[in-house]
Each structure stands twice: as C-alpha cells, then as structure tokens.
Amino acid sequence: MLEAVRNVIASAIAGLRKETGVLQTLHAESEAALRRLRQRHPGLTDIIRRAAGYVVFPSIGKAALVLGAAFGMGEVFERDRLTGYAAVAQLSLGV
Asked: How far apart are CA 68 and CA 95, in angstroms?
C-alpha cells in the first residue's frame, strides 16, 4: 500500500515538473511573439495598454490531407498580467 502511494506521489511530481516546463516554454514563446508584433506594428502597444484583456497564441500548428486539423496553446492577459491559458482547436474535412 505504501509503495502504491509513493508511486502516485512520484507520478504527480513528475507531471507537475513536465507541465511547469511546458508553461515556461509557452511563456517565453508568447513574450517573443509579442516583441515581434510590437516591432512590426508600433501602434499595438497602445491598443494592448487600453485593452481589458488579450490572448497571445505564439503559434498554431496545422496539418491537412483530406482531414485537416489545427491546434495552438496561448496565454491570457488582463492589464498586462498573466491570468490564465487558452487553447484553440480546429478540425475540417474536405478535399
């Protein structure tokens, strides 16, 4: 019984470490995407400053043959403060 509890705890800790790494990578990618967008569109800084909130999707992957799919992870900001995470998914069928 004690061994089972240890395994569950070890699995939970490993999962948290993995998720922390994914979120750190996502945050770095989101910051880089915002920097690139602000360089290309200087007016974006003012728009973001006035916005109640916004979501940054650093990338959205797409794949298609007959069945198409797209997926991306992003960060939700309120007044320039990270408040959550978002995901977008799309599935399409056709030639």
From this structure: 10
Q: Using the structure block, give the residue that is written with the tokens 């004690």.
A: 2
Q: Specify the pLDDT at position 41.
A: 95
The Cα 82–Cα 77 span in angstroms is 4
Count the Cβ atoms, other than its own, within 10 Å of residue 53.
13
**Going along 1-95, which residue ranges are E strands?**
53-56, 61-64, 67-78, 81-93
Dihedral angle over CA of 74, 80, 82, 87, nearest 10: -20
What is the model's pTM? 0.70
Work out how many domains the chain is built from and give that number: 1
Could you tell me the two tokens for 3?
A: 């061994």
Q: How far apart are CA 10 and CA 31, in angstroms?
A: 32
Average pLDDT of the chain? 84
Its domain, for residue 7, covers 2-93
